[in-house]
Amino acid sequence: MPRALLFGTPVSPGIAIGELRFKHNTRLIERRRISPREIAKEQSMLRDAASSVREALREAMDKVPEDMAEYREVIAAQIELARDPKLLDKAGKVIEKDLICASWALENTVEELCDIFRKMDNPYLRDRAQDIRAVGLRLRACLAGTESEELEAAILAAEDLSPADVMEMDFKGIQAVVTAEGGPTSHTAILSRGLHIPALVGVTGLLNTALHGDRVIVDGLKGCILLDPDEKDIKQYESRRTDYLAWENRTRKEARWPAEMTDGVRVAVQANLERAEEADDLAATGADGVGLYRTEFSFLREQLPDEEALFAEYDCVARKIAPERVVFRTLDCGADKMLAAQEALREPNPALGLRGIRFCLRHQGIFRTQLRALMRAGITGNMAIMLPMISGREEILAVRRIMQELHQQLQAEGLPHADQLPLGIMVETPSAVLIADTLARECDFFSIGTNDLIHYLIAIDRNNAHVSHLAEALHPAVVRSLKRVIDAAHREGIGVSVCGELAADPYGLAILLGMGVDSVSASPRFISGMKHMIRRLDAKFCDELAHSVLMSTDVSVSQRILRERLQAVLGPELAFHTTSILTESRP
Ligand code: PEP
Ligand code: MG
């Protein structure tokens, strides 16, 4: 491999040096010619793969909850396909006729069948092409059999990682994560930060340039990967790593100092968590409580959790965080956080589909179980409930009605619970921005989810690398929306926080402080650095900065203003913060 530099979006800071290990790279299909003697072996491998895939699908089917009948149907159809002679016998014959290995024969057969189905007039039959492809991918992964490779001291590389992949893996030995797909707010990014592993997403050329086993340097501050570094590179990066770690250590030592600006204005800096264990050492990060607890991760496991398991999780987190508050966000599945069973439904456009509160109000069995667990946990600690993906007032009212019913049920059952927990919403859809005043009258607090809001406002998929360059946080539509929501909340007398990644971006943070946000919430990884930065700013400076950006209609002018003014105040420290707003500082 020649020495080369690949660029991606830095999503978790730090520098790592190590060897690349690829996880299920679906583009690397084995294409091998075989001798007639190998025909029987390849055919039998194909049959074995088909039976393992059927078994795995049956297990998945058993775990689909009763009230999700449509998902069961999709999985049942895939089980049928995994034994369909049109697919398997045909691929078996291709192995024999063309003398090619099972993976290659399978790929050709899947493509041919998909083509036939795609051309059919009947829309139901046309859609079967997706099922054939899905089963083909499972069979291929099974034939490749690379899923359980040793990941000790490795730099994990992949086309993309789903939250479910991340949940399954043991990250202990992993030094850094790099993916070809994914945006800065993907869950790979969020989880890597939680695990303190440097990460880059959307790395151009990763799949065609880098190879399994290559020695590389991952620069999670500037957003690049250096392939085949020489001794000089390694020395230089080791020294950069030392400087960065020294700064990080200093901010950690001061983590518990309050986030008070030079003119005395204080802001709460809270943590975004996704797993109960993260609550253990939260105090050391300096967080003023938890502004966002993403509850979906325990639902991404194979088996949906029951009320007792959820109650135990929420009760344990609330106790650990008390007396500080923890805001539990109800299940936000769909789009980039598909439940295993939901994935089978393959909605044509899941980001605009049944996600967040929409899914919960449709599948109320799952939602009510979660709300009961939350209400029961609410008697200890200091808790609030937050609803994701709200797009209209009716959704909040529906949840209030459900909570009222659950209160009566729990009372009748004699189960202690809290019936007056503060109820807030995520503001992350354009409709919520436009009716922020109306929504503020129905709930107790707002938290702006800039990860989704930026994407929905500009109409881009947050996990699509082809349009990630358009995800512009300084777009005037975004900046004006933020101001509008913050002002509406304050006019209606409720507090407003920002829990999207923008809050941890040094430029984003400065603007949000200037707009008067009450609190910010980010990955624990960033908290000490954010507090350190806040202590070096003053509220008047931030107010003027936000005003200049709000007045600007040109993103590059806003970028220049931010870069020049913050550089003047923060100096070299600015380079130690991860930004996706201004990424021109590449080596
Ligand atoms: C957001 O959308 O900004 C957010 C915090 O939620 P998530 O990233 O989990 O969608
Ligand atoms: Mg969101």
Automatic annotation (TrEMBL):
InterPro entries: PEP-util_enz_mobile_dom, PEP-utilizing_PTS_enzyme, PEP_util_AS, PEP_util_C, Phosphohistidine_dom_sf, PTS_EI, PTS_EI-like, PTS_EIN. Phosphoenolpyruvate binds at R294, R329, N451, D452, R462. GO terms for biological process: phosphoenolpyruvate-dependent sugar phosphotransferase system. It catalyses: L-histidyl-[protein] + phosphoenolpyruvate = N(pros)-phospho-L-histidyl-[protein] + pyruvate. Keywords: Cytoplasm, Kinase, Magnesium, Metal-binding, Phosphotransferase system, Sugar transport, Transferase, Transport. GO terms for molecular function: kinase activity; metal ion binding; phosphoenolpyruvate-protein phosphotransferase activity. Pfam families: PEP-utilisers_N, PEP-utilizers, PEP-utilizers_C. It is found in: Cytoplasm. The active site is at H187, C499. Its EC number is 2.7.3.9. Mg(2+) binds at E428, D452. GO terms for cellular component: cytoplasm. PROSITE patterns: PEP_ENZYMES_PHOS_SITE. Residues 8-128 form the Phosphotransferase system enzyme I N-terminal domain. Residues 153-223 form the PEP-utilising enzyme mobile domain. Its cofactor is Mg(2+). Signal peptide: none annotated. Residues 251-538 form the PEP-utilising enzyme C-terminal domain. Belongs to the PEP-utilizing enzyme family. General (non sugar-specific) component of the phosphoenolpyruvate-dependent sugar phosphotransferase system (sugar PTS). This major carbohydrate active-transport system catalyzes the phosphorylation of incoming sugar substrates concomitantly with their translocation across the cell membrane. Enzyme I transfers the phosphoryl group from phosphoenolpyruvate (PEP) to the phosphoryl carrier protein (HPr). This is Phosphoenolpyruvate-protein phosphotransferase. It comes from Candidatus Desulfovibrio intestinavium. The gene is ptsP.
